[in-house]
Amino acid sequence: xxxxxxxxxxxxxxxxxxxxxxxxxxxxxxxxxxxxxxxxxxxxxxxxxxxxxxxxxxxxxxxxxxxxxxxxxxxxxxxxxxxxxxxxxxxxxxxxxxxxxxxxxxxxxxxxxxxxxxxxxxxxxxxxxxxxxxxxxxxxxxxxxxxxxxxxxxxxxxxxxxxxxxxxxxxxxxxxxxxxxxxxxxxxxxxxxxxxxxxxxxxxxxxxxxxxxxxxxxxxxxxxxxxxxxxxxxxxxxxxxxx
Length: 243
What we know:
This protein is mostly helical. It contains eight helices and two strands; from the N terminus they run αββααααααα.
């Protein structure tokens, strides 16, 4: 009896449900990343350059629970800080996936990762616009704008966490979720729903008095961390009682 040369040995199945190496796409490349943030950052730099001559000699750069609590004089760094920060953040988020041991798996969720990149740099642009407005009008409510922007960012993160594949870059990353694909999938689905709820709460907090709004927002975030951590642990133990 001879064997069929066309027959191939079956790919071993992973009991955790994780995709096998032969099933995964190539790792992300530079051309795979969204370029929209670069356009937004360029607009931020142009706006800073155009507004620089008319900027006040002194303006608020930090806000506490009761309003501005730190001021800066007009310098290149104080005016261009937000665009430079946004550029550095974009560069960091481009580099991180190359260091991810599961970067081939991350490629399966790269649309979600690119939208996350767009949302993060978009929020930086909103912060830049709000703080620039406050430089001309110290009474401008920067905290309200930032809370709304953060709430929308939470909603975007939550929306895509429900479908993101196992990786070390984006999602609820603890030892139990990274060890079992099923635990990862269920934990991130729960975390995604909770992040959307936290986003709605954060937007509402923008219209509540300070400092209650900050405490409510932080309570929602800490609640997500605790809930997903405990849930992932209990789910892992139920699937791996011998561990």
